[in-house]
Specification:
It is built from 31 helices and 22 strands. The chain is of the alpha/beta class. The chain folds into four domains: 103 residues, no CATH class; 248 residues, Rossmann fold; 133 residues, NADH Oxidase, CATH 3.40.109.10; 210 residues, NADH Oxidase (3-Layer(aba) Sandwich), CATH 3.40.109. The longest helix is centred in the C-terminal third of the chain and has 21 residues. It is elongated and about 125 Å long.
Length: 770
Amino acid sequence: MNQRYNTLVSDTLKAKELHRPEFFRLHNDSDRIKFNKLLDSSNIFLHDEIYDQLKELMKVHHPTVRLSADDYTRLIKEHLGKTDIKDYGVWVYYPWSCKLVHMLDEDEFIELRTSANRNKITTVERDLLAEKKIGIIGMSVGQSVSVTLALERICGELRLADFDTLELNNLNRIRTGVHNLGILKVYAVAREIAEIDPFLKTVCYPEGITEENINDFFTKDGKLDIVIDECDGVDMKILCRLKAKELHVPVLMEASDRGTFDVERFDLHPDRPILHGWLEHLTIDFEVLKSLTTAEEKLPYMVPISGLETLSSRMKASVIELQKTVTTWPQLASSVALGGGLCADTCRRILLDQFTDSGRYFLDLETLIPDKRPILSEIQYIKIVSPITIDEIKELSNIALKDIGPGDKKLTHDELKKLIDAAVQAPSAGNCQPWKWYYTNDCLLLFHDKSRSVSFGDFEDIGSHIAFGATIENLELEATANNIGVITHVFPIPDKTLVAVFSFTKKETQDLLYQPEILSKYIYTRETNRNFGVRKPIAKNTLDELRKAVVSISGAELIIRDSPEEMNALSDIIGGAERLRLLHPEGHYEFFKKELRWSYEHSRDSADGIDLATIKISASDIVGLQLIQDPGVVKLLREWKAGSSLEDLARKSVNSASAIALITMPQYSPANFIAGGRALERMWLKAAELDVSLQPMMSATFHFARLIHGNGQGMPGFMKEEFTQYYKKYEEIFPGIRNKGEVFLFRLCIAEKPEVKSYRIQTDKVLSFG
């Protein structure tokens, strides 16, 4: 048995490259000898349906007559003449399947096989198309295209290029049998075409398209009339178009998503840019292109080609999962079959001069045949808050100033502007800048404009209160630098919309400030640094200086973690928190609609939010952000329990940090968070002096606050469960944290300075007078 098994395996391997049938015309003596020898073989399957083919042919030749059985017998006999029916036509042998088939010879075969095409395709058009040559690159989608072209007989020659072999996971979209696994795709397609039409010429390029054979592919034995690109390689997509443009050959491409279909008529418009100009912002250097190997490297090229804005949500979500939970761009048999029809139909019309345009087209079945049930919004917890009005400001001011009188100094307009200019340089969550300032009766009042800060992340206004602490610190530092005394009243009335009231004196009063003469110099240079650094220790004396700045606020504490084990655990926690934030409908909405600024112009005009330019990330990371801004994408990722790639940026930030640190206060309360905000600003200004970079990583702490102090209000079950698990790990890293106020979680790093600094809203837009 083992010997027989080995022999069969060896014989099968030898047959892997077989893809051309053999023809036997028995009026030829040499063919008859070979045919008889073949019949003596014991493993032949013989199929002789020539009589029925002749019946069909007679019917085609006599379309106006209803033929009887006797009519068929008579007409066939006349048609055969003196030729024996067994010798008539041609015998075709398919060596890969050992099938011997008796059929009409070429002219009659083509006439009969294409008879049902008339008059969708006329006989004249059929004969014209028979002179055409079409090349197909890539035999996944290309298989459906090639077979459909063969079925309609839209050309006389097909050139098939693909270097890949058939694998089991190809059978979700490639129509073939499991017996073909392991053979080259081009041979499998050539075999299928030969079994449909043995007279249709196929030329296989089993090495795929290369720099060495591309001229041969396009021009050998006559130039291609159309090339169809269905390959995966970015380099080959571009190379084949450059060659097509040079030779004035039209290019078609079907993308198997939303029926996306491209036509580039280089035959009519040879000067048009390849791929409709979508890659003009990228380097088209073939040496660079062919070196791209990972999905991350290819994405900046593939996404413009596939069309980021027009991809379906399922495709976008799948791209996010590349090399995470999936290994390749998904394709479905239904989409591939549709693509075969689109390509074949357009090829025919181009070749018959019935279509002359270029462009991208869509045949989106989900749009054409939609699910008309209403789509319910997932945003359930987001609050729409109107901006605080001047009337509200005046009303609260009048209440507070009944008990708070002015100091002995009246600020000049220039002095006031200096103080507010410095104050608004303070950090705030998402750079939301939640403050409004009001100067009246020689007092300055700070108000919370919740329209700027309301968010799922800002649970119980924690982030806003921290920002107010930082802005108060800046104001007092700037006042001291200008020899102005300040008396600060935090939360002077029960309504915490009024955060603080400041009165001013001619005598300096900021005795509790920490190193004001030093730190005030860094108010305008302090910045968030999101660049990836190099993990190396920060000097102990530097860390001690940062700690001293924090503890100068009563009750504040700075906890620093830098061991590899702790950093790895924090990478999991912080990365996981970012993923969960983006998977939450409100968190996703707030990040993309309220925080992120995609361009310099957007950032400058809004003067708030996070400018993407402040995040020095790769082109593929930017593509990832563009993909996940679609709410439909994160909805699918939630359903799939996927989205680990949403952790990548946070993980990279942690993994390139020198340490992760946390500022805490003794209690969880608004006053403690304002005091903690002052501590973080002192520390951050000190870090600016010491040339240490900081980046807030607050998503975890904000959501932990909602989990612990709000019982996870508004969190879906999966989110609450995961944050509970993360918090357990978090408590191991920061023991006793549950009973404290978690003010500020951040990374310390040594990194290249950011090229862009976040904007601030101008003072005259946040300051009003009474």
